[in-house]
Amino acid sequence: MKKYYPFFGLIFFLCCEDIGKGYLWSGDHPAGFSRTFGTLGYDYGWNAAYSPFDGGTIVVGRRSPEINGPTDMWAIKTNERGLLEWDRSFGGSSNEDGYDVIATSDGGFLFVGHTWSFGNEQQVYAVKTDFHGNTIWEKTYGGGMWEVGEAVIEAKGGGFVIAGYSNSPGISSGNTDMYLIKIDTEGNLLWQVAYGNPVFPNHEWAY
Description:
disordered N terminus, four-stranded antiparallel sheet, mainly beta
């Protein structure tokens, strides 16, 4: 995992409008706020979720502190005014990316994406944190080729379901297939299944 360099730049943009709470800027600016977060490299915020615990926002994406350097899954937590409370990087020595995040019923957050750092090619990467962004567990899922986690929900009966795609033999039908994973609250794999066309294999993805 690359170290964080405390350099803020105009890299990605978070905005919100909330007239009811009176977040008014001076002059002709509309109610709401806008913030930018980033490092010296190329940084992206791919998705965001509302934090029901405090009214803030949790953002997931990727960070590359060095230009053209390795990327980490990147998480940012702001308060309800968009002011930074914490940010975290997750991953290993290669490349990671984060595509979705949810607030979980235990008061923490779950981030999903992909990683190249832990052995078997590109795999689904899931990181569970507490409310303050401290890692509780991190897990990888998939076969011997490429898997990506694009979306996650908390299941009604407990655990989580991750959706994405896979093209690993033994999981997919011969090309890229839609890929669903069910895990328990500790990140242990309960089941995995792929959906695609075995007769005319093409590319099926889940977002």
